[in-house]
Design a protein that fits this description.
alpha+beta, Ribosomal Protein S5, domain 2, four-stranded antiparallel beta sheet, globular
Length: about 290
């Protein structure tokens, strides 16, 4: 029996534009966002076997299609069974990049066990997110970490991801019921509206890659794209008395920069809060 452990930060997108190609690694989203110190820790145990994969999330057996797809892509036909124990620091389906973080942390651990290059883990997680319609740019952003501007869609080196300055503390708030990313990405009318709003934000952001501009454009995108819930808009308005806030894409949640003590106090009235920092480290092996 062999074991490896890896950690992957969470990721939050402020605004984006979906761009699809025939090549899955060239497909993704342009946009801007940031990685968080709260993310996913995956412990992978590998034994000789018949290719059985069991995934536990936060101590409970879970159907985890994004993680399983990625692991099977790496495992191929090798005669191994996998037992995966993933611990998430943030809620699922709330725009915090947990499906990507879980899949990528498990994939990096498996690559280590099989003596495969780490980039194979990034490829497996990115492909899985695209094929399962659970995300378009999280894995690409995690590849760079920090505050990121995805100037060209796709996984690097086909995609282009740059950092912009900033490692602030941030308050997150889970407002209500999760939003399924797959539902939004499969709605062509909504996707057209998202892409139009995203294109305008990207063009303006390229002129001023700063945290205040990112925050301002994220709020504009949340409103113009039509994806923000009424509850999220109320939370954003309340938080803006003490900083900058917007909706996490795509989730029924918000993020806020500024006077974090006051922001946390204000946002508690709207839901469960989490306090974290922007993660400047890339996904990594722990053991």
């Amino acid at each position: 029996m062999k074991r490896a452990i890896a950690f992957c930060p969470g990721h939050i997108t402020g605004f984006f534009q979906v761009i699809e190609h025939d090549n899955v690694f060239a497909t993704g989203s342009r946009g801007a966002g940031f990685c968080t110190e709260l993310g996913a820790r995956s412990e992978v145990w590998m034994t000789e076997g018949e290719g059985i994969i069991e995934v536990n999330v936060n101590g409970k057996p879970e159907f985890a299609p994004v993680t399983e797809y990625a692991l099977r892509r790496i495992l191929k036909n090798e005669p191994h069974d996998l037992n995966v124990m993933t611990t998430l620091g943030l809620p699922i389906s709330q725009g915090f990049g947990t499906s990507a973080a879980g899949a990528l942390s498990a994939s990096l651990a498996l690559c280590n066990l099989l003596d495969r290059p780490s980039h194979e883990g990034f490829e497996a997680a990115h492909e899985s997110e695209i094929m399962n319609h659970t995300g378009m740019g999280d894995v690409s952003a995690m590849f760079r970490s920090g505050m990121t501007f995805r100037g060209k869609e796709g996984l690097p080196p086909l995609g282009k991801v740059d950092r912009f300055d900033g490692d602030p503390e941030v308050v997150l708030c889970e407002i209500g019921k999760p939003i399924k990313t797959s539902v939004v990405l499969n709605d062509e009318r909504l996707k057209t509206k998202i892409n139009a709003a995203g294109k305008k934000c990207l063009e303006e952001f390229e002129q001023d890659l700063t945290v205040p501009t990112f925050s301002k454009l994220s709020k504009r995108f949340a409103i113009e794209s039509g994806v923000a819930s009424p509850e999220a808009l109320k939370a954003i308005a309340a938080a803006e008395e003490s900083g900058h806030a917007s909706m996490s894409m795509l989730g029924n949640s918000v993020f806020a920069f500024g006077e974090v003590d006051r922001l946390e106090e204000v946002l508690r009235d709207f839901g469960t809060t989490f306090r974290t920092r922007v993660d400047l480290k890339t996904p990594r092996l722990i053991k």
